Amino acid sequence: MPEKKTIVLRWTETIEHSAVVNVPADFEPGEADELSDTVAELAADTFYAVADRDGFWIEKVLPSFDPDAEDLPLGE
Predict the structure, then answer these.
(1) Which of 6, 43, 48, 54 is geometrically suited to a Cys-Cys bond with 16, CB 3.0 to 4.6 A?
(2) Residue 71 domain-assigned?
(3) Is residue 76 part of a domain?
């Protein structure tokens, strides 16, 4: 088995959400950008898709191998 090391890998994701919601009859579409705090309170699972995943970087290399860390399947 090839030798391995343990790293802390970080990245950024842009996630899309979708929800069917009821709003007041006088709600205007221009008000939609004021909803960021309100949608966080939705009870439903609103996950739709990961739109983008990038900006990978190694935060640090751990000083010793961690056998409980998940194996990243590179080239397998």
Answers:
(1) 48
(2) no
(3) no
pTM: 0.61
Whole-angstrom Cα distance, residue 14 to residue 70?
23
Per run of 10 residues, the mean pLDDT along the chain (length 76 residues) is: 88 92 83 76 87 92 95 82
Assigned domain for 1 exists: no
The verdict on residue 69 lying in a domain is: no
Tell me the pLDDT tens digit for each residue of 19-31: 998 888 888 777 6
Give Cα separations from 39 to 19, 26, 29, 30, 49 (angstroms).
9, 18, 15, 16, 16
Q: Are 64 and 6 in contact (CB under 8 A)?
A: yes
